[in-house]
Amino acid sequence: MIGRSRGFTLIELLVVIAIIAVLIALLLPAVQMAREAARRTQCRNNLKQIGLALHNYHDTFRTFPPGRMQPYFGNSTPLMNPGAACWMGSISVHTHIVPYLEQAGVYNAYNFGTSRFRVPPLGPPNCPQNSTVVDQKLEVFLCPSEARDPTGFGVPSNNYRYCWGLTYCGGIPWFDGGTNLNPWSANCRSEFLTGGGIFMDGGAVSASDVVDGLANTAAFSERILGDLDATVISRGDFRRTVPQNTAQTTATVMAACQPDLPMTGSHTSDQGIGRGAWVTGILHHTIYNHLFTPNSRTVDCSTNVSFVDGNNEGSIVTARSYHPGGVNVLMADGHVRSVSDNVDLQVWRAIATRSGQEQISNTDF
Hints:
The chain is of the alpha+beta class. The protein is built from seven helices and twelve strands. β2 and β3 (179-180) form a beta hairpin. The termini are far apart. Mean pLDDT is 76; it is low at 72-85, 118-124, 173-182, 266-271 and 306-312.
C-alpha cells in the first residue's frame, strides 16, 4: 500500500514565505541601486555627448555657442512683440549644437528668423512657427532618472541646462533702433562681466577667454522638471512672486528666494515654468546658475515671469537631479563629474565663472 506524501504544515509554509520576503527585502534595494547606477551612467554619457558637440561647434566657429541669440537685433522691431505677440529670439545653446548630436535634419528645419514657439499654449496661432523643431523629443536632452513625463506640457522638455554664472539676470542690455529697452542694464551688465559663465547673452566666448581653465569651469548640469501643479511648490517648480524693481541685484533676489521647500505660492509651474523646452534660451527652460548648491532646499524663484525677451527678467535656478546625493556636471573641457549636494558653496560658485580667478583644484569638488 502506497502512503500519501506529507504536505507543508502551516508553520513551514509561513517560514518559507518569511524567507522569500527577507530575500526580496535584501535584493530589491540592490536591484534599484543597480538600475540607478545605469541611469546615472547614461546621464553622464548624455552630458559627454553634449560636451563633444560643444567642442565640435567651437572647432567650427572658434567660439562656444551664444547663450541667447536674438533674430531681431537692430531692425527696429521689438523682440517680444513683432506685430503678433509672438515670443521671438532667445535661441538656446541646445539649438546651435543639435547638428553635432546627429540631428542635422532638426537643425536645418529651424528658422532662425522667426518665432521659436508654435500654436497655443506656447504662442498665438498667427505666430510664425517652428513646430517641426519644437515638437522634436531628443533623448540626449533627457535624463533617464527623470520622474516626470517630459512631454507633459505639450512640447518635449529638457533636463540639461547651461551655466549662466553667478547672476540672476536673464540678459544684458539689448537695443532696438538704438534705444536701450532694458532698464536693468547697469546692474546686469556689471554682473555679467564679473560673474558670467562660458555662455552669455548677445555674444560668444572662446576657449581662450576662459581664464580659470576649461577643466575648472562648469558648462552644463542637470535640472529636474516641474510638476505643473500651481498650488504647492515641488523641487522642480519656480516661485514667481519676487517683486520686480529696477534697483534689485542678485543679492536682493536671493534674499527673497530664501524660504525652504515645500511651500505654497502662486504661479509655480502652471504655465510650464520649470518644464524646460530645449529650443528656448531662457532661465525657465535651458539655463541655470550657481547661486545655491545642488538640490538646495531654497526654492527656485524669479522676478515676475522671467521670460527674458522683455525687461522683467531674472531667476534663481539651481542644479537639481534625482540621482542620490548630487548632480552630474559637464565641465568646459568636456569631462563629466559628479558634484555632491554638500559641496562648499564658494567652490560651487567658483566653478561657475570663466574668469573669476578663484584658486581651486580638482580635489575641492
